[in-house]
Every structure is written in structure tokens, then in C-alpha cells.
């Protein structure tokens, strides 16, 4: 049986082109959204000149959270192709078949593969497009190309080589911005101490800081969502002699809701309903749908963690002496160095009464499961702000940025992916397949979601 491998090709940085090439489409970021676009274009046989620009050196999805035994939270049928075209070669099932694991996987009787296997699936898909991807380049700006008369027909995309800092520029008729989220660390904690790290870099950074797995470290985990709970659980086996405290501003860790009726909020057709609502109704719908994705934990993991808490209670009735603690009602608002200088203490705010305090324990490390900001597109597109219909990067139903029609030609545009929750609902930041791709008169039109 073929072993799983994340090495699906030699992803070397492409050399900087001597001339400024022109593309039908440039996708900034080569994560799941852009990969879904690549697959859809391939499956439809669309012969377009497309370039994908990715700042990582190779394809990898959430490298810092590829934890042992961590599973996906959505069905493998919601992969990069199946709901759009079940006959595509890029379905998860075909990936399993190609790697001689299909029969074995069916024996698991699950719709939720391991996260590391799903990353391998996407890496396998991405390897088919290596000749179209410019790895190791970070895009710094998108602007209207110079020397254009009349409405804009071409965009100029400037990127920086992450190793040499050399810049390269390409032009494109259409641009998709799909750069994902930026780790969010509360301002009082941001960039102040190397002992404060974001959950997104957990499995890559923490082993470099806490090198002795047998040592009795003291670690704080901040946040009440899935990532925080997974890290809290993983630390117990990764550093079995350490003390770990999870702080959450909520009254308790709460379960995610993936029941069938609620799960329909992720159906592609529901985006139409959400988009056509008034802004106030959208906000209410977003709040109502938070239990599907934000600040919640899979019920089976909650059961596992409660068993750990109960086992400690069996041997030690004093909660303050537990090795692994979940501390509710406490929001982390800052930190200060402990008296020994090698550790930190957390500044806390009681969310039930507003009182402030300092953590009793001091910590070698604090891991922040505090989510992501999704505003990176605003910086990339800043030079186009004066072209907008209104003073914000609003998008149409098909995710196209609303530029003034008199200054940007109809067959030229910029699309946003992964940052449109306000207008398209929670499904816009969670996996969903590209619904359709068409090519008309040499132009790539994207109809996502």
C-alpha cells in the first residue's frame, strides 16, 4: 500500500521573468480557494493563461495545526471538486484510490478524515499545477496598469521574492485575492514577547521553544474554540509532565452545532439568501450562525477533555492543584514578566463582573487561540480605493469588487475569496467548492459559491 507523503514535487521558486508577462488570471495565494479554481478550470477544459502566486515555499495547509489524530470538521464530500463535479479526478475519493487507500478508508466508517491526510490530499491536487504556481513570492500590491486610456482593462501585480527580496511584476485581466487570514493577537499582547505565540504556528514553533518534552513546563492556552481545545489536549501528551491552563472568557467550553438543519447554512444556495438580506439582517444571521464555527468545540473532544478533568477530580478535589485546568470567565488582556524574569504572568479580566487580576501561576509560554483577521486584501488593493463605488471593498454576489463601471471595464475585475463573511455568510470563510467557471471571449469569469 502506498504510504502517505506530503512531498508531491519539487516546489522551487520560479526565476524572476526578464519581461513582464500578461495573464488572463492571476490568483494571489494558493490555498484551498485558489486550488479549487485551478481544479475547476482544469475540469472544464478552459485554456487560459493563469498564474498562482504563493508566499510559502510549497503547498501546505495550516502547517501549525497538523496535530496527531486531529480530524476534519466537515465531510470529505465537501472537498475541492465533488459537489461541483463528482466525476473529477481531483475528488478525495479518487485521491484515496490513486494512493491505494480507498478500501482501507471505507473500513474506518467515517466522513471525517485526519487533518494531515486532508492536507496530503490537497498537496496531491496542488502538485498537478506546479508549472502554474510561483512559490516563494509574496504579493505586495495590485494596481491599475500604467498607460491605459479609458476604462481599466489590465491590473499590475507586484510580488517580492521571500528569499532575495527582489520584486517581479506581471499583468492580468482578472485577479483573485485569496490570501487567507492573518493571525490575530490582542493588541496588548501583540509582538511584545517571544513567549506569546499564535495557535497557527503551534506545532512548528512550540517545539523550538520548549525543547525538553520531559520537563515540567508551565503553559497557558488562551481561547475557547476548536484550536485552543485541540492544543490544550495535545499538550497533555506532548509534554506529559507540564502544567497546562486554558483560559476562556466564556462560562464554559461550548459545543459546535453541526446538526443537519443547522449545517444547511453552508449549502451553496444559502449564499443567495444571505446576500440578498438587508445589512442588519445579515448581522443577525451571522450571530445566529456563530455556533457552527466560532468559539465552539467538537462534542467528542469536549467529552475527552471532561474525562481528563473528572479523572483529576477523582484524585484531587482542590481544582487549583490540578495539572490540567480549564479556567472560565477569564479574558486575557495583557501580561507582565514574572519575578524570575524567565516566565510571564497574565493580566486577566473577569468577564462576569469586570474585575482585573494577575494569574496565580507564571508561564513559560502562552499560546493564543484568538482567531484571524481577514483584511489583508485592503492593503493589497489600497491603490485602487479611489476606483470603488463606495469607500469600502464591497463585493457583488459573485465576489467581484464593486468598482465604478465607468473606470473599470466589465470584462476586467478583481475577486475576493475568504474575506466576505459580512455579505456572504460564514460559508465564505469555510471550505466550499467553486460552483462554476466559464470562459467567454478570452476572459475568465468566476462564479464562486
Radius of gyration: 23 Å
How far the N terminus sits from the C terminus, by CA atoms, comes to 36 Å
Poorly predicted runs: 436-443
- Coarse shape: globular
Count of separate DSSP helical elements: 12
Which structural category fits the helices and strands? alpha/beta
Task: State which percent range the strand residues make up.
Answer: 15-25%
For the largest beta-sheet, the strand count, sense and barrel status come to: 7 strands, mixed
Helix content: 10-25%
Arithmetic mean pLDDT = 89
Q: Please provide the count of β strands.
A: 19
Written account of the structure:
By secondary structure, this protein is α/β, with parallel strands linked by helices. Helix content is 23%, strand content 22%. It is globular and about 75 Å long. It has twelve helices and 19 strands. The model is unreliable at 436-443 (pLDDT under 50). The two termini are 36 Å apart.
Q: How is this structure best summarized?
A:
The protein has 449 residues and is α/β, with parallel strands linked by helices. It has helices at residues 32-43, 92-98, 102-106, 115-126, 202-209, 226-238, 260-263, 268-275, 279-288, 299-315, 376-380, 421-424, and strands at residues 22-28, 50-54, 133-135, 137-144, 155-161, 167-177, 182-183, 196-198, 218-222, 243-247, 324-327, 330-337, 344-350, 356-358, 365-368, 372-373, 413-416, 436-440, 443-447.
Helix-strand blueprint:
Elements: E1 22-28, H1 32-43, E2 50-54, H2 92-98, H3 102-106, H4 115-126, E3 133-135, E4 137-144, E5 155-161, E6 167-177, E7 182-183, E8 196-198, H5 202-209, E9 218-222, H6 226-238, E10 243-247, H7 260-263, H8 268-275, H9 279-288, H10 299-315, E11 324-327, E12 330-337, E13 344-350, E14 356-358, E15 365-368, E16 372-373, H11 376-380, E17 413-416, H12 421-424, E18 436-440, E19 443-447
Parallel strand pairs: 1-2, 1-6, 2-3, 6-17, 8-15, 9-10, 9-15, 10-11
Antiparallel strand pairs: 4-5, 5-6, 7-16, 12-13, 13-14, 18-19
Amino acid at each position: 500500500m502506498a504510504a502517505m507523503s506530503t512531498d508531491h514535487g519539487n516546489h522551487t521558486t520560479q526565476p524572476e521573468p526578464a519581461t513582464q508577462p500578461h495573464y488572463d488570471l492571476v490568483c494571489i495565494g494558493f490555498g484551498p480557494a485558489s486550488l479549487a479554481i485551478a481544479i475547476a478550470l482544469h475540469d472544464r477544459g478552459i485554456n487560459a493563461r493563469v498564474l498562482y502566486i504563493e508566499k510559502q515555499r510549497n503547498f501546505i495547509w495550516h502547517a501549525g495545526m497538523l496535530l496527531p489524530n486531529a480530524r476534519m470538521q466537515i465531510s470529505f464530500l465537501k472537498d475541492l471538486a465533488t459537489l461541483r463535479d463528482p466525476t473529477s479526478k481531483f475528488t478525495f475519493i479518487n485521491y484515496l484510490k490513486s494512493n491505494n487507500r480507498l478500501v482501507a478508508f471505507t473500513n474506518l466508517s467515517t466522513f471525517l478524515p485526519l487533518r494531515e491526510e486532508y492536507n496530503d490530499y490537497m498537496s496531491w491536487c496542488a502538485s498537478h499545477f506546479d508549472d502554474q504556481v510561483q512559490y516563494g513570492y509574496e504579493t505586495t500590491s495590485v494596481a491599475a496598469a500604467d498607460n491605459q486610456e479609458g476604462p481599466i482593462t489590465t491590473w499590475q501585480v507586484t510580488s517580492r521574492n521571500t528569499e532575495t527580496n527582489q520584486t517581479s511584476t506581471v499583468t492580468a485581466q482578472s485577479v483573485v485575492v485569496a490570501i487567507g487570514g492573518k493571525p490575530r493577537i490582542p493588541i496588548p499582547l501583540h509582538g511584545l514577547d517571544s513567549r506569546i505565540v499564535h495557535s497557527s504556528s503551534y506545532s512548528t514553533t512550540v517545539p523550538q521553544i520548549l525543547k525538553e518534552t520531559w520537563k515540567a513546563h508551565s503553559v497557558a492556552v488562551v481561547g475557547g474554540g476548536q484550536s485552543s481545545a485541540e492544543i490544550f489536549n495535545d499538550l497533555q501528551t506532548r509534554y506529559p509532565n507540564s502544567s497546562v491552563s486554558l483560559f476562556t472568557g466564556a462560562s464554559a467550553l461550548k459545543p459546535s452545532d453541526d446538526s443537519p438543519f443547522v449545517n444547511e447554512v453552508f449549502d451553496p444556495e444559502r449564499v443567495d439568501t444571505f446576500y440578498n438580506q438587508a445589512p442588519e439582517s445579515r448581522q443577525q444571521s451571522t450571530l445566529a450562525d456563530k455556533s457552527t464555527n466560532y468559539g465552539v468545540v467538537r462534542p467528542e473532544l469536549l467529552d475527552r477533555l471532561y474525562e481528563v478533568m473528572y479523572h483529576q477530580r477523582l484524585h484531587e478535589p482542590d481544582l487549583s492543584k490540578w495539572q490540567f485546568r480549564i479556567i472560565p470567565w477569564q479574558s486575557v488582556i495583557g501580561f507582565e514578566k514574572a519575578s524570575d524574569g524567565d516566565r510571564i504572568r497574565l493580566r486577566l479580566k473577569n468577564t462576569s463582573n469586570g474585575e482585573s487580576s494577575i494569574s496565580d501561576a507564571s508561564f513559560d509560554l502562552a499560546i493564543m487561540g484568538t482567531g484571524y483577521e481577514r483584511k489583508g486584501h485592503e492593503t493589497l488593493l489600497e491603490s485602487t480605493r479611489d476606483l470603488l463605488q463606495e469607500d469600502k471593498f464591497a463585493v457583488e454576489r459573485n465576489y467581484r469588487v464593486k468598482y465604478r463601471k465607468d473606470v473599470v471595464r466589465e470584462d476586467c475585475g478583481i475577486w475576493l475569496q475568504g474575506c466576505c463573511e459580512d455579505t456572504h455568510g460564514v460559508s465564505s470563510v469555510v471550505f466550499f467548492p467553486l460552483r462554476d467557471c466559464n470562459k467567454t471571449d478570452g476572459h475568465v469569469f468566476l462564479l464562486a459559491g
